[in-house]
Amino acid sequence: MPDRTSEEAAPLLPPSSSPRVSKHSDFEMASRIKKALWGPPSVERSLLIKLDFTVLIYFSVVWFLFGVNRASYNTAYISGMKEDLNFQGKDFNYMHTIYLVTYAVFQIPSTSLLTIVKPRYVFVAANTVWSVLTLVTFRATHVYQVFVLNGFEGAFSAIAYVGAHFIYGSWYKQSELATRAAVFCAFGNLGNMAGGWIQAGLLASLSDGPIEPWRLIFIVVSCITIPFAVFGV
């Protein structure tokens, strides 16, 4: 017969000192992060990860660059554009108002276009056009030219936000949307914040060149946004 006395006398290891628990404790945080982003292991996890590393990242980076792009107008205004283009009174407010009006008006038709034309072509075309319009702004010689360019830029960038969420809703489940939408919006806020820092660095390093500093801002920002917009193909 087995000796039960020795079994009863054997000290019990507390759960925290168990070798098996200690082995898995190092991966506990990583597992929680994976579960929060991609849920429990399943056949759909690989698809969800692919979506995050393609669809989510592409739209998030575009929205980040969009924030940098819009911040460039504010930086350019206080860096010489106001004087060179003869902004008067509320012209700066009018510039942003024209942009916002066309941005709001074209949100519905641009999203409807996604049901007719392949989204990859719509997004690449729209993102490329508004990036090129930003580049063209560096050639402006009058405030009214900036008004017109901002109006067209608002029309072509209208799809940036609503179109991204339309695609998210087409691929992600309802339980997965909140996290992705939060990441997307966070990138936009980072773009607005980082845009000023990037452009301040440009002004400090390129202010002595033959081209006015505010014009250089639009050139450099466009050189960043145009290649990434085309990358969506």
Structural overview:
This protein has helices at 4-9, 19-25, 28-38, 45-84, 91-105, 107-113, 119-136, 143-157, 159-171, 174-206, 213-231. It is mostly helical. It has a single domain (49-231), classed as MFS general substrate transporter like domains (Growth Hormone, Chain: A). It is globular, with a radius of gyration of 26 Å. It starts with a helix and ends with a helix. The model is unreliable at 4-10 (pLDDT under 50). Residues 55-233 form the Major facilitator superfamily (MFS) profile domain. It is found in: Membrane.
User: What would the average pLDDT be, to the nearest integer?
Assistant: 83
Percentage beta strand: under 5%
Number of helices, where a helix is a run of at least 4 consecutive DSSP H or I residues: 11
- Any idea how many domains? 1
Structural class: mainly alpha
Layout of secondary structure:
Layout: H1 4-9, H2 19-25, H3 28-38, H4 45-84, H5 91-105, H6 107-113, H7 119-136, H8 143-157, H9 159-171, H10 174-206, H11 213-231
Helix pairs in contact: 4-9, 4-10, 4-11, 5-8, 6-9, 7-8, 7-9, 7-11, 10-11
Characteristics:
233 residues; mainly alpha; Growth Hormone, Chain: A
Can you give me a brief rundown of this structure?
By secondary structure, the chain is an all-alpha fold. The chain has 11 helices and no strands.
